[in-house]
Amino acid sequence: MNKNAAIKAGTIVITTMLTVCSAIECYFDLDGTVEVRDASVPMLRMEDVLGAHSGGNRWEWDNISGFNGVYDAGNVFGLSENESGAGGEDTLPQGDENDTSAENGSGDGNELSGENDEDLPQWEPSGEYDPSINLLVLVNKEYPVDENYVPADLVKLNYCAADRSAEWQVMTREAADAFNKMAGDALAEGYEIVATTAYRSYNFQNYLYNSYVEREGQAAADTFSARPGKSEHQTGLAADVTSASVNYRLISDFGDTEEGKWLAENCYKYGFIMRYQKGKEDITGYIYEPWHVRYVGQKAAKEIWERDLTLEEYLGKMPSWLENSDIDAEKSE
What we know:
- The chain is α+β, with helices and mostly antiparallel strands.
- It has 2 domains: 3-77, no CATH class; 89-327, 2-Layer Sandwich (Muramoyl-pentapeptide Carboxypeptidase, domain 2).
- The chain is built from 9 helices and 10 strands.
- The strands form 3 sheets. The chain has a 4-stranded antiparallel β-sheet with strand order 1-2-3-4, with no helix packed on it. A 4-stranded antiparallel β-sheet has the order 7-8-10-9.
- The longest helix is centred in the middle third of the chain and has 16 residues, at 173-188.
- The relative contact order is 0.14.
């Protein structure tokens, strides 16, 4: 597939070849609008171009088997130089608001590489891990992360979707080591699992979220996309994964594939949890996402898996909307 991009008068132009042997040009205005200049293309979404996830089967392309666009397009995403994955000095919020030493939690989750459980996989660290990173930090609709936060030790993942931007295929070193071990072991068993995006900057998430709102409305967008500053991806501890069996898309059907089943049954062994589980939508606030994994460390992940918990339940930080609903229910009795 050929790829050509140029910036013209404040507009990014992307040209690509389709399987129907026609060419399209997508003009991305800096205000976030998109113009697709090919009438034969029935629908093209910003999230497909950027490699962002979609809710369920919401944005499948009708006649495109793949798309290589321009992902690292300078300030079209409003990115500053220190948001390119190189790390920074900012830290995640600490203190009472994001204290993870809850009674049913387990500290920072830093029992690494199976050293306290011989049944868990082990691996050699690729370098020194940043001790300031709290593996159990809770980031959701009620616990935000500072917009300037950039993890200091982001490193490239080894198992990634080739048609997505390498800039966003990075995680904190410890999470990356665990992911590489997990994906490598899966591949050795015949299951290809690759990351589409992992770390995302505040500005990138802001751009994605607003594009969803523009197309689907805010109420719908809030069920599958985090508002800027409230995305786990900004911590460098979360990743969206996929496989060839679903054409490297992020769709709910991934959970029914052999790769998706392997991931759900084994990710805890490597320190990951399935963050947005089926049947837990009322707690997480998001739809079922079998492609989204979050690194918490092996000890915490094993306990969360064994007890079938969400991270909110594990940390004892249930969302306020559930507390309010309990109050309303008591009043109605």
